[in-house]
Specification:
15% strand, binds S-adenosyl-L-homocysteine, alpha/beta
């Protein structure tokens, strides 16, 4: 089969300009098809399912798009106990999940000693991959957590535009964020980055830079999802990100990082369930499911969703059925 000339040009010379050319294509279907073929070559028909445990919504940071930001005084804060986190992950393993993603705001209560203890206990009791997603950490802290058995670390770069990053993150810099990602990679974790589509002032050129950064970091995982305005944030009146553009970005990420794990992000599903399923036919190979206990799940309010978690086993079954109905194999 002939490869579209713009795709071939990108493969021969990976650059921001060549990524931008693809994003601007009027007929994007050759890119979707190509991404689907590469995905199939590397991942077959498998869709890998991850369980996500949102264990604390305390956060010291003030990211302007996020409902957990420290200035949101209307957020009701919660912390799961260490034992609750451990038991939830074990429960998810027994329901069939092979990976637990432990995610939180940047909560100083959860020191690396506490996080390390949680990782070690889960690993002692069940055979399960552990992904951490708890914000920026020092090289030493990341090294310690790796020694405790953490397999993967997820820290989205959010936007590769230095000044937009600065505007949205009063508590951090893009340089510190990417350094942390490079540390994660250097320590031998599976490194996960990602970014949002539709942030205010973002252009197609910014998205091309975002995609190039994923390639430059040689990410093992990349979550690309639409921005969703949260009513208790400064960005409440901005519009949500475009789901078609999100799909295009995922397809290009698949071309740049053929073997990477690319999730159909939760935020995509919030805006458009059809697009979320559809994305498995143009590059995505992973899906995450919340297994956060019901008393906390509504409080982990990064952006507005109607997602409920009732029964871990039933939800897993339902998800497997949906995946099979798409002609894919849940794993
Ligand atoms: N504290 C952790 C986890 C952050 S929350 C960390 O810093 O990595 C997980 C992800 O949710 C963020 O990385 C961000 O990309 C996404 N997110 C936050 N607010 C959002 C919003 N309003 N719309 C869409 N995605 C959002």
């Amino acid at each position: 089969m002939n490869t579209h000339p713009a795709i071939q040009k990108l493969i021969d010379d990976i650059s921001v300009e060549n990524i931008l050319t693809l994003l601007e294509l009027e007929d994007f279907s050759p890119v979707f098809d190509y991404a689907d073929r590469i995905n199939h070559f590397h991942h077959g028909k498998y869709i890998d399912i991850r369980a996500i445990v949102e264990f604390s919504n305390y956060c010291r940071r003030k990211c302007k798009y996020c409902g957990l930001n420290a200035t949101n005084s209307s957020a009701k804060r919660y912390r799961m106990t260490e034992e609750e986190v451990i038991q939830t992950a074990i429960h998810a393993r027994k329901a069939g999940y092979l990976t637990a993603v432990l995610q939180s705001g940047e909560d100083a209560y959860f020191t690396v000693e506490k996080l390390g203890f949680i990782v070690k206990e889960i690993k002692k009791q069940v055979d399960m991959f552990i992904t951490l997603s708890c914000g920026e950490k020092s090289f030493e802290e990341l090294a310690y957590l790796k020694d405790c058995g953490a397999d993967r670390y997820l820290l989205k770069h959010e936007t590769a535009d230095t000044s937009l990053y600065g505007n949205l993150h009063p508590c951090g810099t893009l340089a510190a964020r990417t350094q942390c990602l490079r540390d994660i990679k250097k320590l031998g974790y599976d490194a996960g980055s990602g970014f949002m589509i539709g942030l205010p002032t973002q252009t197609l050129h910014t998205i091309a830079e975002d995609l190039f950064l994923l390639y430059d970091l040689q990410c093992d995982m990349a979550g690309i999802g639409p921005f969703i305005p949260h009513p208790e944030t400064e960005l409440r009146d901005c519009s949500a990100g475009n789901t078609e553009l999100t799909k295009k970005a995922v397809a290009i990420a698949r071309i740049l990082l053929p073997k990477a794990n690319l999730p159909a992000t939760t935020s995509l599903g919030v805006l458009d369930t059809k697009q979320k399923n559809n994305i498995f036919s143009c590059g995505a190979n992973v899906i995450m499911r919340k297994v956060t206990p019901p008393e906390y799940v509504q409080l982990y309010d990064i952006y507005p969703t109607a997602i409920k978690v009732n029964n871990i086993e039933e939800e897993r079954q339902e998800l497997e059925t949906t995946i099979r109905s798409l002609g894919k194999i849940p794993r």
